[in-house]
TrEMBL record:
This is Fatty-acyl-CoA synthase. It comes from Acidovorax delafieldii (Pseudomonas delafieldii). Pfam families: AMP-binding (PF00501), AMP-binding_C (PF13193). Residues 440-511 form the AMP-binding enzyme C-terminal domain. Its EC number is 6.2.1.-. InterPro entries: AMP-bd_C, AMP-bd_C_sf, AMP-binding_CS, AMP-dep_synth/lig_dom, ANL_N_sf, ATP-dep_AMP-bd_enzyme. GO terms for molecular function: acid-thiol ligase activity.
Length: 559
């Protein structure tokens, strides 16, 4: 691995001395006033222009009587105003919180009533169904609507820096869980812990700028989700942040080409969409030098394909809101061999090795540590773990046990020290009395050249694999024939006890706002499908299943 650049060493030195998110932002304003800072639907703002808007917004908050420690909520689409609000809360010591735009109205209203914000900055198109109820339940709430009202508020203020005494142990953000399995849970993080997370990341990553051209970062995940992890690294690097309005493959590819993006933080599904996009060859993506990916597990065959397509520029880590990354890293050079070719699925299907200063223990249901190689609950002890859910001690006690974060995932360590994450314990599928880990079957399905995404779910007593087809395979053969092909492929490459009872093909697998597969929605899709006829339950057809050479296939069962 290359030695860190002088600029990276300087950034790490400065980071070691910075204590708050405000100090990071102010340093960026001072060092890079004329460099591009934010690129969104409105155009490009320099760091000086961004500072002016941020200082005007924080001045508006102060004029409303907002004080340090108050909660500022946003319910906005993926826009630069959301970024500006986040930076304004850094300035005045308020606590930033945000809803993603897909949160149901009733969940938004209930969460606001629980957290009781002082300021609500919102998009009227999102908030209209609950706005009257919000006014009634929170009569003292200061509200600011995106659009003309927001712009007038900024224009009427004189830009001014925040004057509150902001300290490293102050809570600066309430991170919200996605709310896909119930009401969003809130986690308060201090400046210290968030900066410690960035410091840990900086030890593993060389944030050196591109050799040619500006340093441009792009969000391929919502700022209301994991994308927020790119904020401080972007400011520290003095880079521009590109905020797409949507995360479709053509949108991302077009922005990479237009703005010569050097670093893109992508979800696995976004990478899969790029690989599947038939027009991808029309875009110049050569500026990309670094692609961190995360938010869910990446199928090993797909990241191997991405490496062959784009080069060894990919990196993944393991973490969550309750235990901030990095817990483990699989760095770019750890994805490839000495010739730059992708390593085998036995490595690429892992999340890498544990970071120094972090402990990971695999435990049984009684919380006792398990021997090397045995599968169990993944538990983590890290200096950047959460201290508890906001105003929810009951949920906290379920996730935080004796100082260990229970990740909710099942996994195991191999003899080389790589952590294998097999997915959520709640997603296991029971077949003939045996519990199956969906990821082990899905990884094998991804080796079939026709498969775009794969999802194993419980459907009554059956284990059913639902898969979507890559665009190049659609209409190539009948759906039923391809289902037979995929079923036969799985028969050939899986032991009998791991083979699904049925295979169904769909156009697309439902995803969340974070681009994660929604297994609950897949189960609902199956319930809505007509039942198989008796003829459809015949054994899969034998014979050749694909004309393309087959990638390496890996399957393993764990006790």
């Amino acid at each position: 691995m290359a030695l860190p650049s002088l600029r990276s060493l300087l950034a790490r030195f400065l980071l070691s001395r910075l204590r708050t998110a405000r100090s990071v932002a102010r340093l960026a304003y001072r060092l890079h006033p004329h460099k591009p800072a934010l690129i969104d639907r409105r155009g490009t703002l320099t760091y000086a222009q961004l500072q002016d808007r941020v200082y005007r917004l924080q001045a508006w908050m102060q004029a409303q009587g907002v004080k340090k420690g108050d909660v500022v909520f946003t319910w906005l689409p993926e826009t630069g105003e959301q970024y500006e609000t986040r930076l304004a809360t850094f300035e005045n010591g308020t606590i930033f919180a945000s809803f993603h735009k897909h949160l149901p109205d009733d969940a938004a209203l209930t969460t606001m009533g629980r957290v009781k914000p002082t300021v609500f900055i919102h998009d009227p198109l999102l908030s209209a169904p609950i706005l009257q109820a919000v006014r009634e339940q929170l009569p003292g709430l200061r509200m600011l609507a995106l659009g003309d009202e927001y712009e007038r508020a900024l224009a009427q203020q004189t830009p001014s820096a925040g004057t509150a005494d902001v300290r490293e142990d102050d809570v600066f953000a309430l991170h919200m869980t996605s709310g896909t399995t119930g009401l969003p849970k809130s986690i308060g993080y201090s400046n210290r812990k968030y900066l410690d997370s960035v410091r840990l990341i900086s030890r593993a990553i060389d944030f050196k700028p591109p050799a040619n051209g500006p340093d441009v970062n792009m969000l391929g995940l919502p700022l209301t989700g994991p994308g927020s992890g790119l904020v401080l690294p972007t400011l520290l690097a003095g880079a521009a942040l590109v905020m797409p309005e949507d995360f479709r493959a053509t949108t991302l590819a077009g922005l990479i080409q237009k703005h010569r993006v050097s670093r893109a933080f992508l979800s696995p599904s976004a990478i899969i969409d790029l690989l599947d996009e038939p027009t991808l060859g029309q875009y110049d993506l050569s500026s990309l030098t670094h692609v961190p990916y995360g938010s869910e597990m990446m199928p090993a065959p797909k990241i191997a394909e991405a490496i062959r397509r784009f080069g060894p520029i990919f990196q993944q880590g393991y973490g969550c809101l309750e235990a901030l990354p990095p817990i483990t890293w699989l760095l770019p050079h750890e994805h490839v061999d000495a010739q730059g070719q992708p390593l085998g699925n036995d490595i690429l299907s892992t999340v890498g090795r544990v970071m120094p200063g972090v402990d990971v223990v695999i435990r049984d249901e009684q919380f006792a540590p398990l021997p090397l190689g045995q599968m169990g609950l993944i538990t983590v002890q890290t200096p950047v773990r959460f201290d508890g859910y906001w105003l929810d001690p009951e949920k906290t006690s379920e996730t935080l046990r004796d100082g260990w974060v229970v990740m909710g995932d099942l996994g195991y360590f191999d003899t080389a020290g790589y952590l294998h994450v097999l997915g959520r314990s709640a997603d296991r599928v029971v077949r003939n009395g045996q519990a199956l880990n969906p990821r082990e079957i899905e990884e094998v399905a991804h080796c079939h050249p026709a498969v775009k995404e794969a999802c194993l779910v419980q459907h009554g007593p059956a284990a059913v694999l639902v898969a979507s087809l890559r665009q190049s395979w659609r209409n190539d053969r009948g759906t039923r024939a391809l289902e037979h092909d995929l079923a036969e492929f799985l028969v050939q490459h899986l032991p009998p006890e791991m083979r699904p009872d049925d295979v169904r093909l769909v156009t697309e697998i439902p995803r969340s706002f974070l681009n994660k597969m929604l297994r609950r929605e897949v189960r609902l899709m199956l319930e809505a499908m007509p039942p198989r006829s008796s003829a459809a339950h015949a054994e899969p057809v034998a014979g050749p299943i694909a004309t393309a050479p087959q990638p390496e296939v890996m399957a393993s069962a764990h006790p």
